[in-house]
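Quick one: structure for this chain?
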Amino acid sequence: MQQFILTQTQFNQWDNFCLDNGETMYKNGDAYMNGYDEDTKTFSVRVSQTEQSGIIKFLEKVLDTF
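Got it. Here's what it folds into:
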């Protein structure tokens, strides 16, 4: 699993990505797990290394823009 730590704004972008690409993610059998850390006010997204929907590339791009 690969983990990405996101701010609220970054997580909103991730949420929109999931809404826009959910059908493809489902067809590919891709999975992810979201978490929230109350202390740091950040979100964690864990993604399998074998995902096929461009999830990791998207999350890397989101992290690069901030």
